[in-house]
Description:
CATH class of the largest domain in chain B: Mainly Beta
Shape of chain B: elongated
Number of helices of chain A: 12
Number of domains of chain A: 1
Mean pLDDT of chain A: 92
Mean pLDDT of chain B: 83
Number of strands of chain B: 15
Radius of gyration of chain B: 19 Å
Oligomer: heterodimer
Strand content of chain A: 15-25%
Strand order of the largest sheet of chain B: 5-7-9-11-14-15
Number of helices of chain B: 4
Structural class of chain A: alpha/beta
Order of helices and strands of chain B: EEHHEHEHEEEEEEEEEEE
Number of strands of chain A: 8
Radius of gyration of chain A: 19 Å
CATH architecture of the largest domain in chain B: 3 Solenoid
Strand content of chain B: 25-35%
CATH topology of chain A: Rossmann fold
Distance between the termini of chain A: 61 Å
Amino acid sequence: MTARVLTITSGKGGVGKTTTTANIGVALALQGKRVVCLDADIGLRNLDVVLGLENRIVYDVVDVIEGRCKLRQAMIRDKRLPNLYLLPASQKRDKSAVKPDDLARVCEDLKADHDFVLIDSAAGIEEGFRTALAPADGVIIVTNPEVSAVRDADRVIGLIEAAEKGPAKLIVNRLKPDLVARGDMLDTGDVLEILAVELLGVVPEDETILVSTNRGNPAALEERSRAGQSFRNIARRLLGEDVPFESFRDAPGLLKRLGRLFGADGRS
Amino acid sequence: MSLDPNSIVIKGLREGLSVTLSADGTWREALTALEARLTQAPAFFKGGRVALLVGLRTLTESDMRAARDLLARHDVTLWAVLSDDAPTQRIASELGLDIPPPVPPPPTPLPRQWEVTVEDQPSAPTLPLEEWPDAGLVVRRTIRSGQSLRHPGSITVIGDVNPGAEIIAGGDIVVWGKLRGVAHAGALGNEDAVVCALDLSPTQLRIGSRITRSPDDRRRKPQPETARVRNGQIVAAPWGV
């Protein structure tokens, strides 16, 4: 068995790369896959926090590369899923501590015993992005339905094509169905029209993400989270299943549902 | 003696532009002619990269530095000096101005001149330097933000030109798709050049030395249009009119 190495990147910061990496990792592990989440954002370590594993870090990926520990010693087994691992970034160093070849070598060593290696890339198009891209067999672009995020995604897709790592697949994150319905937000079709790449999934804006991120408990673990459901569907698509894209339109809010229950529609 | 700037031959390469300097006169005169050419059409060269073809001329290191500095003043990168003179070629290589050894291109079903050209990419260059036919360049892909196409002839894009991308042509520009980036036709000074697209919504449109931008609020049905210079202004009209 040899793992697929997928790099998750975006160009623009703050669109949800780390949350996406953590949740896809969890969702793939829930499907019984052996997964490593690798934090390649050296110096701005985050993935451990989102996965709730911060307090277990002893060694990090820079220690592995510089020979201070064995790869196995730096890998942290998830507290919930026994087939999910985290390889944390260093918080004390910066991007120059890891070269593209270094990361490629680490991934090569991880491939034998796993099904997926998910690399959480740094934002931007500089060194950190180039390093995260080097070992990739495939690339997942995360964007938000917002003009500047889409512009940056377009730039990054061009760089990925030039590096012959394409075609990239796209996740549209933080979609607000009610804003789209009012015509105040780009919809998925608008984003795809510009980027012209394959859509891997759409994740709605969801408060449970914020809560679960702060608690270090990824939403993909929560049966009732809408965003979590989207991430679980993305994982199934990555495994080759044909999962229809969710429609968020007919998911009325709690108040509306209560209102309907009591026969008060607001309009009548 | 002064050299005619128009004796300089400009061609489009996969990796940038090639500029062939006249073999006559001194190096200083050749550079003066080059500077005149750069000044004639600054927008065409700005931000691009250039390989200088100097033929049998023998150059010193300071000659090459002078060329590099001159180009840099016009925001042009000198990426290679190609000479048929062995000592000159050696100096070029010491300055990192030679062409790296060829990397075998990946197998592709398309003719080579249809491959991507992305000037800001450190993509593997191939030898021999391959010229695009001067009549024009055909590119069949989406041109994305941050990418730029530059050719002394005409450029045809079969695909979209996204916002943040730029197309700079000495001749006409035809986009069989949506044109949303910046397009500059006739950038070597030809105001008869036209820009046409199936959906002509560029961020900015330039023809020769004229510049216009799209209206800020433009909600209309996309239709094929052609833009050209009329009475000193760029005007767009539906296809065929």
